[in-house]
Design a protein that fits this description.
The chain has helices at 3-13, 42-46, 68-82, 89-104, 108-120, 124-150, 161-168, 172-186, 189-200, 205-214, 231-252, 255-317, 325-335, 339-344, 346-361, 365-380, 384-394, 396-415, 438-463; strands at 20-25, 29-34, 53-56, 60-63. By secondary structure, the chain is mainly α. Helix 5 crosses helix 9, helix 6 (124-150) crosses helix 8 and helix 9 packs across helix 11. It is found in: Cell membrane.
Length: 472
């Protein structure tokens, strides 16, 4: 089914475009805010050719796969524009009220994680691109540095020994280009996070970016602070507070003075709070989180790797895995590596192994078709297609796949694999692997995949899954 037909059918089974309040997307999912959930035909949605799964949350999430999600979401938004009709104020207010009431039912923890996910989802595509470019550049630089060391190449002028080797190989310009582009994101990530945080909390976008810029300003040591102190956690909290303060100030400022007075007052107050309260406190909190995670990986060893990797598929299935991005990115900012992310992406290996076993076991032609499409996608990039299209519908395969992922996590810790960026999983993660441990990463991934396959296949045989013609 082509993208246009998928979009049309999704809208139809969601009660029509008039039942959609807002539509956006992440890497694999079309996320829709629904006015009246009772008008949605869930079974028909799941049965659409091209839909790999449906998740009911504060938004209705339809999994269509990487690349396709942005195209389908854009087409649905076009359909909403084309069919827009005048509605009464009471209808609009009623829809907004229903959406607010639905949001209130979330637990506080889930609300926080959801906000964090919404903040980082827009940054994710360039984050992946920058991570891949950084990984490619690291391969070039590390290779040159190794050659310079073994052949005793000396520095020349302002060029380091590695740069001299790159210059001799006519790769210095390419290396500088790759480094410039990747550092343009990671060096100024606080600014981008400030902008997306302001959007999430309904504030002024540039004001949010400005607060993010304050946290990385080179003048901070003069105030006894370090650039980046408090990390992205401090930026997000500061922008949330700024958005609240902006709304309060705007209530008392005359309209004629709003454009001048409101940003001036809000910025002055928030800059002071950020510098003298939020950054110091967030710095302590950020350091505590990093020490706790590093301590867990150090003292827990392979057991910690197993447990963490086995739990990540559940976070992904709930859409809460994006809530870990501040931790991953703060680890990269402080240590240059993200060991927790290397463990997280072993969930991909477990889901691929389990889905492969289901493909061999099932006699359901629909399941076979979905599995054949989902497995290559997951091998290349993300695990959602196999999670929602194959393993969760099969039931037991999601559990055995998660256990298999745990064995991959054990190997990650045992082999000392980590990443210097965050992004997609599978083969797409190869350029992100730090210290040239590409073979170790592939070995860990294969172990997780094989363990999941064996567990799933054996469990399926015991349960008689291969003899059934329908998905259970």
């Amino acid at each position: 089914m082509n993208n246009n037909l998928v979009a049309d059918t999704i809208v139809k089974h969601c009660g029509g475009s008039g039942n959609l309040l807002h539509v956006t997307n992440c890497m694999t999912r079309v996320r829709m805010t629904i006015a009246d959930i009772s008008k949605v035909d869930m079974q028909a949605l799941k049965a659409i050719d091209g839909v790999l799964g449906v998740v009911e949350d504060d938004t209705l999430q339809v999994i269509v796969g990487p690349g396709k999600s942005s195209k389908v979401a854009s087409l649905i938004n076009e359909l909403m524009k084309d069919s827009a009709v005048d509605t009464s104020v009471s209808d609009v207010e009623q829809k907004a009220k229903m959406a607010r009431e639905k949001a209130k039912k979330q637990t506080p923890v889930k609300k926080v994680l959801k906000h964090i996910a919404n903040i980082f989802v827009p940054i994710l595509p360039p984050l992946i691109a920058a991570g891949i470019l950084m990984g490619i550049n690291n391969v070039l630089v590390n290779s040159a540095a190794s050659f310079a060391l073994t052949h005793q190449v000396a520095a020349v002028g302002d060029l380091s020994p590695a740069q001299v080797v790159l210059e001799q190989r006519h790769l210095l310009g390419i290396s500088e280009f790759l480094g410039l582009v990747s550092k343009a994101l990671f060096s100024f990530l606080a600014i981008y996070t400030g902008v997306t945080s302001a959007k999430e909390f309904d504030g002024t976008l540039v004001m949010g970016g400005l607060l993010g810029a304050v946290t990385i300003a080179p003048q901070l040591p003069q105030l006894g602070l370090l650039p980046g102190q408090g990390g992205l956690i401090g930026v997000i909290f500061a922008v949330w507070l700024m958005c609240w303060l902006e709304k309060q100030v705007r209530r008392f400022i005359p309209d004629v003075l709003d454009v001048v007075m409101t940003p001036t007052i809000v910025l002055t107050i928030m800059a002071a709070i950020l510098l003298f309260a939020i950054m110091p406190v967030a710095g302590i909190l950020s350091d505590a989180i990093l020490h706790a995670m590093n301590g867990l990986l150090t003292t827990g060893g392979v057991a910690a790797g197993f447990v963490l990797a086995a739990l990540f598929p559940f976070l992904i299935s709930l859409g809460l895995h994006h809530g870990l991005f501040p931790i991953h990115l703060e680890m990269i900012n402080v240590t240059g590596h993200a060991p927790l992310f290397a463990i997280q992406i072993m969930s991909n290996a477990g889901m691929v192994g389990a889905a492969t076993a289901v493909l061999l076991l099932t006699r359901d032609p629909v399941m076979k078709k979905i599995a054949r499409g989902a497995i290559p996608t997951s091998i290349l990039a993300v695990g959602e297609p196999t999670i929602f299209g194959v393993n969760i519908p099969a039931g037991f395969a999601f559990i055995t796949g998660s256990i298999g992922a745990g064995f991959g996590g054990m190997m990650i810790v045992l082999l000392g694999v980590t990443t210097n960026g965050v992004g997609a999983a599978g083969l797409s993660a190869l350029p992100l692997i730090a210290d040239g441990k590409y073979l170790q990463y592939i070995l860990a991934w294969l172990v997780g995949c094989l363990a999941a396959f064996v567990l799933t296949y054996a469990t399926g045989k015991i349960r008689g899954y291969g003899k059934k013609t329908v998905v259970v």
